[in-house]
Amino acid sequence: MSWKKFLTSPVFFKHLALALLITLAFVFGVMKFLSVATNHGEEIPVPNLAKMSVEKAEERLDDIGLEFHLLDTVDYNPAFPPYSVVEQDPLAGVTVKDGRKVYVKINSGGYAKVTMPDLVQKTYRQALSTLRALGVQEGDVKYVEYMAKDVVLEVKQGGKKIKAGDRILKNSKIDFVLGDGKTGFNDEELDSVNTHEILVPTEEDLNNAE
């Protein structure tokens, strides 16, 4: 049989149709395999990792095909356990593809320490502004006799005097000893000064003095 007759024969078309079916079946199988292998079209909701330990969060993500990635440690937040997840990206509930990285930030193990600045002879307002910028809280205030009002004379913590350069924990409370604005005279001396009669010499007194 010549090639021309073969190419126009029913047998050729039968073989051609069979080859096309096999090719289509192979392509479909490959596409199906890739779809399953890559979870094509499947989206996974990101779980809420807040307050989980690093180990538990990593295990939770691994179980559902997501990747844990630690970004940083943030300042201590007492609302979260030490070394637990504080922030995550993507947020909980967002749907992502399989294998997506979830970036997290974890809580510190405790409050950091800051260096105490020199607050003596500063005004109370200046001292508060400085401490708040450092993350330190205001404690009790005590006034003592001093000529300048609201001037810091001492800074204490737990009854112990603190000096510039000492290290204290963030969020701790600092007590102040401030001046009350009085000169230091006692009440009797102040009354004497206030009631003392000032004598103005007369012209006759001045003439007699001459």
Automatic annotation (TrEMBL):
- Where the record annotates domain PASTA, the positions are 41-108, 110-180
Taxonomic source organism = Flavobacterium suncheonense GH29-5 = DSM 17707
SMART domains from the xrefs? Answer: PASTA
What is the name of the protein in this document? Answer: Membrane protein
Q: Name one Pfam family in it.
A: PASTA
